Amino acid sequence: MQGQGAPCRRSRSRSRSRGAFNRRSNYGEAHPIQPAVLASIVEEPSSSIMPVVNPLMVAAKELKFPCQLAHGSPVAIIDKWNDMEELYQSIADFFAISKDDIIFLTVNDFKPDMKNMFSGTLNFKDMLFAHVRGQATELRMVKDANVFGVTVTDNGLGNAFIKVISPGSVFDRMRPATQVGQLIEAINGESVLGKRHYQVARMLKSIRRGEECIIRLIAPKSADPGTMKMTRKTGGDLAKGTIRFKSEGGFAVEDIQDQMIQAEMCGKLNELFDQYLGVQDDQLAMRIWETASNCETLWQLSEAIKQSELSMFEFPDGLVFDMWGIIGDLKREQREKKPMPVMKNAISRPSAMKLFD
């Protein structure tokens, strides 16, 4: 029990959506109650100006988005999350499934289309679809080429899956047993669950040409024909912005120009990741961009990568050099304040020596 002179305290709600509207308590030390005269109620003039509310900012504060299982389910409203792990856990809790059963998420598309895969960016009118474990397939294949011809990505939580299958490759010739969106569960009897995509890609690369291997894949559940319908996004100024969740936590609200710049940048960096590592990862591309934001030379970027968690990827020097070429072009165009709907290829890159100046 508090003493008579103790300050009065009021409990505060933890809800984001209500927290913005809680009034601050001005209570100080306790004082005797003084008689007061209530003022008469005066109506506000009808001409009073209502504050302008941006629905995008409201969505960012509330973090509420509709979600449905990709093979069919009721629609859930997912909230109370700040990062990818909390998002997956919230979806799993609502549908009473394990978080590990969710292979990946797509945006506004119940089909396992990698072009619409959720990678941390949402419009406030977007709808999420969760793709969960389905039929398992165990394949015995011979690596009759230098590579399997498969590009791997992951959901950031330990599920690595197939994002791209190259035409004419080993994996392509195994269709329809192989398909985009399949979870890679085990390689030669060793479970790869919990490993990052670059670790899985290294295991596939380590298999020598001519060797036989056994790969266990799990396809996402698919909807029965006619049971699912595509969602439609409405246009207008309210849709010209996104909420992007940062790798270190939290989120940022970005406009349409930021989206276009980042989409082009992610596409180019993913091409490099695929070439050097056999993976594609929009979140990794954004993490590289965030790391390079305070770098002015290739050497600074190389050192920043070595001193961050990005060092685990063990990027080859050639990859860092090519990444800085893409990022350096973008940084120069931003400094010159040129319109940037698309990154231009006409700007030549500096020589290798100047990159270290």
From TrEMBL:
PROSITE patterns from the UniProt entry: PDZ
InterPro entries in the cross-refs: GH2_GIPC, GIPC1-3_GH1, GIPC1/2/3, PDZ, PDZ_sf
Renumbered residue ranges of the record's region Disordered: 1-26
Residues in PDZ domain copies: 136-206
Top-level lineage group: Eukaryota
Stated family: Belongs to the GIPC family.
Protein name (database record): PDZ domain-containing protein
The organism's taxonomic lineage, starting at the top: Eukaryota, Metazoa, Ecdysozoa, Nematoda, Chromadorea
